[in-house]
Specification:
5 helices; 5 strands
């Protein structure tokens, strides 16, 4: 009986730890100045779809919570949002340094990578590309 109680306790701890690791949603974090500025900096003057413009202007988006990722020894935050009422392959994936000081992104249209923003290096492109896989 103690083993079952211990197992249940461990499972509850693991679940709470995993749940605590979730980050906010993209549309929430870009209300913070650092995140907003770094994301705007990489898309200014670049072609972007109207729904992405809306997201950047403060419209709520459709997304899941962000997650922490590691590239080499560096930590990053990865977020996504999809086109409302047309999520099938129409996404924006954004990689931020912790706290939002710098950003890189990939935009997908109908399941294909349409454009990278922020000139991500090969390692960041790989993380963004993997995130964009269906």
């Amino acid at each position: 009986m103690r083993r079952i109680a211990s197992l249940c306790g461990l499972l509850a701890f693991a679940f709470a730890s995993a749940k605590g690791a979730e980050l906010a949603y993209l549309w929430d974090v870009i209300t913070k100045p650092a995140y907003k500025q770094s994301l705007h900096a990489i898309v200014v003057g670049q072609p972007i779809d109207p729904w992405v413009k809306g997201l950047l202007a403060g419209d709520d988006g459709v997304s899941g919570p962000g997650k922490d990722v590691t590239i080499g020894r560096d930590k990053f935050e990865l977020y996504n949002a999809c086109q409302p009422h047309n999520c099938g392959g129409n996404f924006l994936y954004v990689l931020f340094t912790p706290g939002g000081g710098k950003a890189w992104a990939v935009f997908t249209k109908e399941g294909k990578i349409a454009r990278y923003y922020g000139d991500p290096d090969a390692a960041k492109q790989l993380v963004l590309k993997d995130a964009a896989k269906p």
